[in-house]
């Protein structure tokens, strides 16, 4: 009796593991029609996010963007990176050393162009974002090399935290 139960559990576990390992076609929680995306996105945004394209280095709007705020997936709006984890990698693409949430990006092997790279995809909608490399700064050592075309930016809402106050701008000499 007991033995049967144990075997059953082992078998069940194996099925679960196998189904996970054999998952080839992933479906995403959020999906949009190609038609809608073609209307809503610029041709460049569409090409990068839907056709796994890469924008030319040093051409993206967020490469040297330094404002405080949050970077989102341009397709579904899922928050991906904080401006605090952005750094100048010199690569010509916006680079981040950490994610807002570990699960917000799905990683997979990419063997295109005869290279082995790790592709970074939005976990919500499956939009192609860029690649992950292991040569980032401490403490994570990670470099999320993103396309500006995959990202939207929401500036930090100053009314969110009243720490520095709203009277700051008045009577303060500019340096
Ligand atoms: Zn998305």
UniProtKB/TrEMBL annotation:
The protein's Enzyme Commission number: 1.8.4.12
Keyword Signal part of the UniProt annotation: yes
Organism: Crenichthys baileyi
Protein name: Peptide-methionine (R)-S-oxide reductase
Pfam assignment, any one: SelR
Region spans: Disordered: 152-175
Co-factor(s): Zn(2+)
Catalytic activity: L-methionyl-[protein] + [thioredoxin]-disulfide + H2O = L-methionyl-(R)-S-oxide-[protein] + [thioredoxin]-dithiol; [thioredoxin]-disulfide + L-methionine + H2O = L-methionine (R)-S-oxide + [thioredoxin]-dithiol
Stored InterPro entries: Met_Sox_Rdtase_MsrB (IPR028427), Met_Sox_Rdtase_MsrB_dom (IPR002579), Mss4-like_sf (IPR011057)
Superkingdom of this protein's organism: Eukaryota
Gene Ontology BP terms: protein repair; response to oxidative stress
